[in-house]
Each structure stands twice: as structure tokens, then as C-alpha cells.
Amino acid sequence: MAVALDANGLHLVSVDYETTPTTQTVPRRRKRPEMRMETRTRLLDAAIGLIVAGGVAAASIRGICERAGFSQGAFYSYFASKDDLLFTLVEEHMANLARKFDMLVADTRYQTAEAILDTIGASLDALSVDASYSVLVVELHLHARRNAAFRARFEPVKIAYESAFAGVMSHLLRRTGLTPVIPSIQLARILLSLWSGLTLQESNDPPPSIQMRHVFAALAQV
């Protein structure tokens, strides 16, 4: 028992000292950089969804903000314009693929040619599961054709992306002892275009990687 004082005087109250106090978990307060990164990611994801569904023209700044759940003021905290956001999509997507291509070369440096082909094929097939990025890249290519200012920023990123895949092709050719009938950069462009087209068509019989292997073999010789 314990004594408690209220407005009417002293009263005896029952207190169970064996009871463990309830502990409430206080949600972790996110740091500002983390929140900014989440906002930026949601804006980019919203833009991708709109572009894939209806093309670049369908992705207005207002539409992007409404889909992401933010004001247009939030948009301009991260991007100077719609084209600035579009360039960010291009840069991040293609730079990510270029890094994967570079890692693929490093990881297969001592593998047999057949093992390298299997690794490349598995990587491309995994990327082909979701066609949205292939649609996105096609739409951004079309936008670059129509917009000279955007094209000026787009081209260097595209060239770096193609060069990274050309590095994979050169690595594979060295391991197989084959000589391409065309320069590696042209071979890379053909195979990337084929891969993107097959992904858009959802052509999985046979998988895109198998069809690309046939084309690779046709464009290289002993």
C-alpha cells in the first residue's frame, strides 16, 4: 500500500510494485540528409512512373510532384528544371549500368570464355525482367533527339555507357581469341540496341541473352 494526497486529503491507494512499467518505443527521428535523400528518390521514382506510362511529355513538374506527394517548391529544392531531373535519371541509370559492366570485367578476369558469356547473360537477363528502364531509356533518347540542349548533356553520358559495355566486349573477345568484324564500340551499340529492343518486346523465348550470343558469334570470327 501507499499513501497519496488529493484535493480531499489523504487516501490509501494500492500500488503493485511487482508490475514492470510499460516502455514505449520512441520512433527514431530521421536525420535531415536522410529525409532529403528520400524526397529526391520519391521525385525521381514518380518521374519514372509517369514517363514509362505516357512518355516524357506526360511527366509535368506538377504531375511528378502530385505523384510523389510533394509541393512544386520541394521539386525546385532538388532540380532546376524538368530537363535537369531527366538528365539526373539518365546519368544515374547509365552510370549504374556502366559500373556493373566494369565490375563484370573485373570479376571474370580469369574465367573461361564460356563462363564469361554465362555471367554476362545472367546479368542481362536479370536486368530484362523489368522493362520499365528500357522504356525510360528509349523515351529519353527520343527527348534528346528533339531537344538540343538536353542532347548536349545526354550524349557524353551515353558514350561513357556504351564505352563501358564495349570494354566488356573487348574483354570477352580477348578471352575467346576472336576478332570482331567491326570495332568493339559498334558491336557494343548493336548488342545494347538488341537487348533493349528484346526487353521492350518481352521476347523471352529464347531469353535475350541467348539471342545476343547468336548475334555476338555472327559478328566475331576466329
Distance between the termini: 95 Å
The percent range for helix content is: 55-70%
Low-pLDDT runs of 5+ residues are 1-7, 9-22
Which CATH class of the largest domain is shown?
Answer: Mainly Alpha
Biggest β-sheet, characterized? 2 strands, antiparallel
Shape from CA axes? elongated
CATH fold description of the largest domain? Tetracycline Repressor, domain 2
- The chain-level structural class is mainly alpha
Total strand count, please? 4
Features:
single chain, 222 residues, mainly alpha, Arc Repressor Mutant, subunit A, Tetracycline Repressor, domain 2, two-stranded antiparallel ribbon, two-stranded antiparallel sheet, 6% strand, disordered N terminus
In words, what does this structure look like?
With 222 residues, this protein is mainly alpha-helical. It folds into two domains: 33-79, Arc Repressor Mutant, subunit A; 81-221, Tetracycline Repressor, domain 2 (Orthogonal Bundle). Helix content is 68%, strand content 6%. The chain has helices at residues 32-54, 61-68, 72-76, 82-107, 113-128, 132-146, 148-176, 184-201, 208-218, and strands at 2-6, 9-13, 179-180, 220-221. The protein has a two-stranded antiparallel ribbon with strand order 1-2. α6 crosses α8. The protein is elongated and about 55 Å long. Residues 1-7 and 9-22 have low confidence and may be disordered.
